Amino acid sequence: MNTAVAKIYRYPVKGLSAQALDEVALAPGEGLPDDRRFAISHGASSFDPTAPEWRPKRDFLMLAKNERLAALETDYDSATGILTVRRKGRQVARGQITSGMGRLLINQFFAAYMKGEAPGTPSLVEAPGVMFSDTPEKYVSILNLASVQDIERVVQAPVDPVRFRANLLLDGLEPWAEAKWVGRSVAIGDAVLEVEEQIGRCAATEVNPATATRDINIPLQLQRGYSHRNCGVYARVIQGGRIASGDPVRLID
Question: What confidence tens digit (pLDDT) does each residue in 108-160 have?
Fold first, then answer.
């Protein structure tokens, strides 16, 4: 298996844009540092800021319902806690979201930007030790680029891999080979991960990250083309270590 890491992405704020990384240090039982650290709750959310805990995605702004989020380009600086939001290359909001005042600035922007599209007032939230992914477990999500290319064959259109919001994009595999990794361990760079399950895909993948429009019903196309709605796998870090773009990937059991 001549496979390597092609891209590394994290998503500091659930529902907002990908942030490319050259390398990352993984710790056992954790996801990528600052991945899905924050989320944006809405007026109908049952998230309780006085007792913060993991909540399902319906409690937050998300691409599955709020495709306008994809029109924003965001960058999060872990050292300073500053989130910068741009639209069409122009800065539209900036704030230190690890502080109350900085969050207020970001909340004000999203209240105006999402007006009429989300109930109540949006509020940036975090829960110490919690990762706001689609599962309460802290996983690393892995995407096989060859599988995405095979989906392109089925839909007869380009499919941006960023639609799938994965952390590690792998090159050099056969299409759908990752589905056979469930229950096995894989060494990536200096880390070892145990592949737990396939990822069932939702309406978030319908959104084109370049245009912020719903242009391909990916879950439906998966069902029609493959009789399932899976693409990619979740993996748990069992041995920490550094992963960098270009690092080799190999099954070890």
Answer: 999 999 998 888 899 999 999 999 999 999 999 999 999 999 999 999 999 99
Residue 140: half-sphere exposure toward Cβ, Cα within 13 Å: 32
132: nearest Cα among 37, 238, 66:
37
Rounded Cα–Cα distance for residues 10 and 146 (Å) = 21
Supply the angle between the helices 218-226 and 145-155 in degrees, to the nearest 10. Answer: 90
Residues contacting 194, CB < 8 A, separation 6+: 184, 185, 186, 235, 236, 238
The span from the CA of 66 to the CA of 117, in Å, is 7
Give the distance from CA 28 to its chain's centroid.
19
